[in-house]
Amino acid sequence: MEDPAADVRATVFVRGRVQGVGFRWWTRARALELGLSGWARNTADRRVEVVAEGRREAVERLLGLLREEVSTAGRPGVVTAVSSPLWGRARGERGFLER
């Protein structure tokens, strides 16, 4: 059984108009507000890859903000899809970077 107090890691890919609109900056700001670490980076196929580590409920809150339509948190760009998260154990990321 998984330890409910253990930190988790989730990786998702966000599709839509999410590059060149401040999406990674916005994701970083929301992640830091939630106490998460990790990173967000543009991919060659115009998606944004987001890796977030921390308490599961905080990671799930970030994922909800990424998916939310209409955004209540001022999310820039247009999100058309967010992949199902790939869950794993936290690896000890520090801070949250825009890569």
SS-based class: alpha+beta
Elements, N to C (H/E): EHEEHEEE
The total beta strand count reads: 6
Uncertain segments: none
Number of helices: 2
The general outline is globular
Q: What characterizes the major β-sheet?
A: 6 strands, mixed
Mean pLDDT: 95
End-to-end C-alpha gap = 34 Å
Strand content: 35-45%
Provide the helix percentage: 10-25%
- C-alpha Rg (nearest Å): 13 Å
Word description of this protein:
The protein has helices spanning 23-33, 56-67, and strands at 8-17, 37-42, 48-54, 78-82, 86-89, 96-98. Helix content is 23%, strand content 35%. It starts with 7 loop residues before the first strand and ends with a strand. The chain has 99 residues and is of the alpha+beta class.
SSE inventory with pairings:
Blueprint: E1 8-17, H1 23-33, E2 37-42, E3 48-54, H2 56-67, E4 78-82, E5 86-89, E6 96-98
Parallel strand pairs: 2-6
Antiparallel strand pairs: 1-3, 1-4, 1-5, 2-3
Question: Descriptors for this entry?
Answer:
99 residues; alpha+beta; six-stranded mixed sheet; globular
Summarize this structure briefly.
23% of the residues lie in helices and 35% in strands. It has 99 residues and is of the alpha+beta class. Strands 1, 2, 3, 4, 5 and 6 form a 6-stranded mixed sheet that branches.
